[in-house]
Design a protein that fits this description.
single chain, 321 residues, alpha/beta, TIM Barrel, 2 domains, nine-stranded parallel beta sheet, 9 strands, 42% helix, 13% strand, binds flavin mononucleotide
């Protein structure tokens, strides 16, 4: 059975998003938090927020993610996540942004297999939750993945999620399916594919391509990203879950519920607008005139104007999903 997860998006897939999404749409089996950093103490402040609080999250289906190259920090994070009831943590080795990668963090760690070996050696001495990795093929070069796989294979990773681009590419070009297929048979950990699944058609194409020759391994777990932010019905559609009710009505209810939920949790902070705009920069693609949607969303400057703009969009515009 195909399993689907939702990739983490810093600034978008926060706890209110995950909870509202789950109430409105089906098809996603697993979630990941956007990455945490700066776990300097045993009772870290940023692990005392609703983002990870078990009363606001489902510890069975959510995996907290950390961006770090410090084994002690990773272990501190693991211990605190375990105390909160989580069963697994995930290490971000995929973030491509220069501010992160230039410090040999995120995908910037991929050219340094020996450094990763040192970190994992220490982490696996004492970690007592599942430990998974999300990475790219490399930072400068997609062949960086080969020595890194040798390191990954020395440790009992609970899963390895690979987005087959390199860090330097950011999100340009296409996910490299051929390279992903080449590395599939080399990887011991349960493998998850992530990248460019934007429609049922692209899912079918990628799934067929990866699973056409089972003698070289198979993949039955896929992480969705921008495709699901644009079309929140995507996981239901991929799984063939029968559509419930009118799509436009459901999308409208979701856009309002998420806004209201975020507003409640942020105590009315205008920061909520920024987060909603970021989501709309993807969701606009579900409408027949995305640029027009974006013009309407971009010009909202005050919280009081958000709902009116959304009402207008759903009254006047057609969806294409
Ligand atoms: C704005 C933005 C924020 C992201 N934040 C994270 C993050 O916190 N952790 C992570 O592992 N990946 C992060 N990603 C990467 C996505 O989870 C995903 O791997 C990427 O978009 C590729 O999948 P897709 O082609 O299906 O979108 C982010 C991507 C974007 C565009």
């Amino acid at each position: 059975m195909t399993k689907l997860s939702l990739g983490p998006f810093q600034g978008i897939t926060d706890a209110p998003f995950r909870n509202v999404f789950k109430q409105h749409f089906g098809g996603i089996d697993k979630y990941y938090t956007p990455f945490f950093t700066g776990i300097q103490k045993d009772h870290a402040k940023n692990l005392q927020t609703e983002e990870i609080d078990p009363s606001c999250n489902d510890v069975e289906t959510l995996t907290p993610q950390i961006l770090s190259t410090d084994a002690e920090e990773i272990l501190r994070f693991a211990t605190q996540c375990k105390q909160l009831g989580y069963k697994a943590i995930n290490l971000n080795m995929g973030c491509p942004f220069p501010r992160v990668a230039n410090k040999k963090r995120g995908s910037g760690l991929l050219p340094y297999p020996e450094k990763v070996n040192e970190i994992f050696g220490r982490v696996f001495e004492s970690i007592d939750v599942d430990f998974s990795v999300k990475c790219r093929l490399g930072y400068f070069n997609p062949d960086e993945i080969f020595p890194m796989i040798e390191v990954f294979n020395r440790y009992p990773l609970s899963e390895l999620i690979i987005h087959p681009r390199i860090g330097k590419q950011l999100y340009k070009g296409e996910a490299d399916l051929e390279k992903f297929k080449e590395i599939m048979p080399l990887i011991k950990a349960p493998l998850v594919y992530n990248g460019d699944i934007v429609s049922v058609e692209s899912f079918v194409r990628i799934n067929k391509s990866l699973n056409c020759d089972t003698s070289t391994g198979s993949v039955d777990e896929f992480m969705l990203g921008r495709g699901l932010l644009a079309n929140p019905f995507l996981a239901e559609e991929i799984k063939g879950i029968e559509a419930q009710g009118d799509k436009k009505t459901r999308l409208h209810a979701y856009a309002i519920a998420l806004y209201e939920n975020r507003l409640r949790h942020a105590g009315g902070s205008p920061k909520v607008l920024g987060r909603m705009k970021e989501l709309w920069s993807y969701m606009m693609n579900s409408f027949d005139d995305p640029q027009n949607i974006w013009r309407k969303i971009k010009k909202i400057n005050a919280l009081k104007d958000y709902k009116n703009a959304v009402e207008e969009i759903f009254r006047e515009m057609d969806i294409v999903i």
